[in-house]
Amino acid sequence: MRRIIAQARKELTQVFRDRLTLALALLLPLVLLALLGKAISLSVTNIPVVVQDLDRTPSSRRYIETLQASLTFRVAPLPLSTQPPEALERNEAYVAIVIPPQFERSLQRDRETEVQWLVDATDANTANIMRATSVALTQDFLTRMNLMAGVQPAIRAEIRFWYNPGRESEKHIGTGAFAVMLALFPPLLAALATSREDEQKTILQVYVSSISAQEYLLGKALAFMCVAIAEWVLLLASAIPLFGLRFAGTPAPLFLSTMAYLFCSVSFGLLVGTLIRNQAAAIQATQTVAFLLSFLLSGFIFPIANIPTSVRWISHLVPARYYIEVTRDAFLRGGGWAAVWHVPVMLALLGSLFFLIAWLRMRRMQMDV
Amino acid sequence: MSADAVTEGTAASTDVFLQKPLEDAVPIRVRDLRKSYGALEAVKGVSFAVRKGEIFGLIGPDGAGKSSIFQILGGVMQPSDGEASILGRTPRDARSMIGYLTQTFSLYQDLSVAENLRYVGELRLLSKEEIRERSAHYLRMFDMDRFADRLAGRLSGGMKQKLALACALIAEPKVLLLDEPTTGVDPVSRREFWDALIPLAARGMTILVATPYLDEAERCHRIALIHEGRIHATGTPAELRHSLGLERLEVRANDLARAEELLRKARGIEDVQRFGDRLDVLVRDVAQGERSVRETLKDLNVTELHLREPTLENAFVATLRELEGDVSLSPFPRARQTGMPKRNTTAISARSLSKRFGDFQAVKGVDLEVRYGEIYGLLGANGAGKTTTIKMLCGLLEPSGGTVTLAGERDLRSSSVRQRIGYMSQKFSLYDDLTIEENLDFFAGVYGVPRREREEKKRWVLSFSGLEGRERQLTGSLPGGWKQRVAFGASIMHEPEVLFLDEPTSGVDPLARRALWRMINDLADYGVAILVTTHYLEEAEQCNRLGLMVAGYMVAQGSPSDLKTAQRGTLIELITDEPQLAMKILRDEMERWRVSLFGDRLHVVVDEDEDTAIKKLADRLKRNGIDVVRAYREPFSLEDVFIQTVERARREGKVAPED
């Protein structure tokens, strides 16, 4: 135990000595949190749309008004001289809508006509959203024109939004960004401190003393847990006002999971630091693995259910996946222990796994050749 | 060796190992130790034993296997075969009784002196009081108690090394392993370091030390010459010096280059080595040798001829030559179109050169002149301003004051000047991640070596470095000494008229060092002006002229012989029955620097004449019950000169003690 404390104290002294790194480690996550949380927005608004109205009747104008009323679109007329695909080619609009001549007449006489939507599907996701919007808006138009009478569908979906009634994507992304920051910075510090010992050969000093691998690693873990907790407090204190978060239920699962998650993060850093004995490479490895995996495979932006099954299994090894579940539950859903009891368990298991591998690598406390 | 033989040997030796009295008297035992890294066998069956209280030196070049042996004995690496025991246990189990100082010192640069000591102490489970007391004790002992709060990274090289030693000592080990503790450290710090070691051994600590410096080897009780993973000779320094059965004649003559060439072919002469303004001639029979020298050099006017003891370097070089033959030196392919500048005209000249970095005055009014055909050596402790000076002289750094003329021009950055100078720095001269060939191509390119000459020049560098057929190897994978040879070759491919060499031979084995110096001499004979810095004082002897820098000042200049003659006082060598105690007694009455211990011999610098001084010293020791066995006057070595000059400058207030 005394050696663990000695090791931890040495690490903390070094951390506090290097003011620049410490400042970066504490402030950079805050900046990134704000950037990620604010810049990534999944709602689609203000899409530039051009409309070529070949009918010019009250009905066609009514249709255009319906489009204008939606927040999704910013509508501009397209002069008759321009071909609609040209507007797409010149990147003036994502959607070009052509209202055919005889639009009103066909509607009134045949109760059936077509409006052409040319959608730029380069961004498949936005294209999908616009397809859904086109259907919804057209439906809306028909209802207003009282053209739906008598054709009521047998089942009507009655939708109400739970947990995040305003569908504010900021709350969703913010809680995720919070977890991603904690997946990135604590392991970075831990990995640097571990690989530095190898790079500067101070590890020999450690080997010749009789400290054991677990004492050495626990000492380091303890020190960087302290730093990570400080990071967590700072991040939480900024995320709450920044994204307008409020605890939705008991925060107890969050607190317990946080400890397990930070242990996971720090152990991952130790693992990288013991495997890669060069600081520059260790930074790259931590950033790439920790950041990319937590970004892509944690459900931060892309729902895990949407990830192709061939790579989805990897997400089970990504600690951020579990922690994001618990932060979203704590701030949005409020499901409490019943909903997230598995999170601290999984995190503790993963953390122990990382720690175990690092320990296996170090256990001989000798140089390997 | 068959598998049976190995097991048998092991069983037999284990019995011996377990005998209690033996393990106390012989704390370090190594038997048929082997270590392989993949296909490379670094240690090829090494055996030796170190007695209690002994300082045992492993002497050998880079890549000889010294570090592997230390890592095994330190318990941080497993041997491939054979056994190593410390105090009768495996090194791993004996870790609590071992102090281990690695080449890189293993210090945490961003922790303070006290924090470094505390961390090591706590890892070894010392109590708070023990850590406090022992830290204070060792810091006081090494005269660095003022620096307890300074960051280790801000200490000078010598201080770092003493701190590392304090860290190794804090657990009060019985066995101390020192792996090249003084590499890259200046002579003053090196002497201080050894002064700290000797009393530890006297108190019963067993010390194993590796060093490439042969003058340090002289201070060990016993040494082993190790080369390519094998030990080739073991004994006391005196035994090894005389193991050759050769005597050394110091010869001074008019045309040394020619004299060397003639003597090489002469009969009755075993070896000729050139050292600056003199030749060392090794002969088996003194009378016959002397006759042969006089006869061979009758046209060259032998000005001096003295009989001296052979040096360890003589012994080492002879042993290595037997093993691998001398490094052959193919002639450098010269393709110069224009003639060389006239000999003895000024190549480099500096007038009241100074450099200031913020508040710190690194170089203070240095005057210096180097002529074509001359080898000028710049000596000084770490931080004396040597590297800053050399950088200003070759135009890498703008001086704050004073003027520099290089190859007749004042504009040091002009391309015509740059084309005529060569520069090799101790570090950073080659790219580790390029192959040897790619490095040579790159340097040939940037120095504008004409395309048709490149192939021949490259082949010459490869043959000079002994790396023919290995040009595709990554430069980073070469041992330091070989890299230095490639870097040296690369720096002269474009046939410079002025050559700057910043520590060209650190980590190079003695044979390669001789080859390098033969090449340097060859260049100088051709008319190249050469300015070189070095920590090896043996090597400084090879320079025609020396400049000694202390704290930014040039405090002395002249040929090695001039500097030695100019020394005030007399050097007395004393052999006593209790050298440790004698040193302590004399140091109590005289200034510290005047007394130092070399193995079993004491060197004392006195101001009186020889006879009076010997009488006084003997009387003083007699009163304390110590008998002087032998006492005589010794000529000053360059190291003595160096240390005295630094001390005198310090007393004149030129150097503030490090603060």
Please describe what this structure looks like.
- The complex is a heterodimer of chains A (369) and B (659).
- Chain A is mostly helical.
- Chain A is built from 15 helices and four strands.
- Chain A has a four-stranded mixed beta sheet with strand order 2-1-3-4.
- In chain A, helix 3 links the parallel strand 1 and strand 2 (73-77).
- In chain A, helix 7 (169-199) runs antiparallel to helix 9 and helix 7 packs parallel to helix 10.
- The longest helix of chain A is centred in the middle third of the chain and has 31 residues, at 169-199.
- The model of chain A has no long low-confidence stretch (mean pLDDT 87).
- Chain B starts with a helix and ends in an 8-residue tail after the last helix.
- With 659 residues, chain B is α/β, with parallel strands linked by helices.
- Chain B has 23 helices and 26 strands.
- In chain B, the strands form six sheets. Chain B has a six-stranded mixed beta sheet with strand order 5-6-7-3-8-9, sandwiched between helices. In chain B, strands 18-19-20-16-21-22 form a six-stranded mixed beta sheet, with helices on both faces. Chain B has a four-stranded antiparallel beta sheet with strand order 11-12-10-13.
- Chain B folds into four domains: 3-233, Rossmann fold, CATH 3.40.50.300; 246-309, Alpha-Beta Plaits, CATH 3.30.70.100; 346-559, Rossmann fold, CATH 3.40.50.300; 568-635, 2-Layer Sandwich (Alpha-Beta Plaits).
- Residues 1-19 of chain B have low confidence and may be disordered.
- Chains A and B meet through helix 1 and helix 8 of A and helix 4 of B.
